[in-house]
Design a protein that fits this description.
This protein has about 190 residues and is an alpha+beta fold. The protein is about 25% helix and about 25% strand. It is globular.
């Protein structure tokens, strides 16, 4: 079994489980499912019309705050994340991005995940092209995971990709990630 086959089989299993157990009635993920069925190399950023990314909603223990980054290329505040990089699980890829981009220390996977790799949300969205990388506008199939961290600990933004990293009120997610925000409102801090 090739690395791509193993990756796509794992992604297909997670997407199917997400659609059966988590997704709302309007979440169909048609393009992502089509690309998986067509065996596109979704683990490579060159794959068009879209490819896999992972991101992290790092919450304060009381769920009042979320850690966001001021993204250099996109020019707005977003949750930390990036193109999928090989990892033992998708949430480990998201965690690595959060730590790299913000310097957040000791984040832990949120109890909602029950230690597993089921995404809290999957958001397929269009992103602008990046002329520096000769990339046209394309789709990010973003597997989103929840983490908990202490907002009192210092942050260090990764200056190549991030202007700043800061804790913001959880309501900031309403515009950034409406599906995840709506789902978060139903959680209690104890999970």
């Amino acid at each position: 079994m090739t690395n791509l086959t193993a990756f796509l089989d794992r992604l297909d299993s997670i997407v199917s489980r997400y659609l059966a157990e988590v997704a709302g009635p309007r979440e169909r993920l048609a393009l992502l499912r089509w690309q998986i069925a067509e065996r596109h190399a979704l683990d490579r950023r060159e794959t068009m019309p879209g490819h896999a990314t992972t991101s992290a909603f790092v919450l304060s223990p009381d769920h009042a705050q979320v850690l966001l980054i001021d993204h250099v290329v996109i020019g707005r505040w977003l949750q930390p994340g990036g193109h999928y990089e090989p990892a033992g699980s998708f949430h480990e890829s998201a965690l690595r991005e959060a730590v790299e981009e913000t310097g957040v220390t000791t984040p832990v996977l949120h109890p909602w995940h029950r230690g597993g790799d089921l995404p809290f949300a999957i958001d397929s969205h269009e992103v602008p092209g990046n002329p520096r990388r000769n990339e046209p506008p394309h789709i990010h199939h973003d597997l989103q995971y929840l983490f908990i961290a202490d907002p009192a600990l210092p942050l260090v933004a990764q200056e190549e990709e991030v202007h700043a990293a800061a804790w913001k009120p959880i309501a900031a997610l309403a515009e950034i990630a409406p599906v995840a925000f709506a789902r978060l409102r139903s959680l209690s801090p104890s999970g």
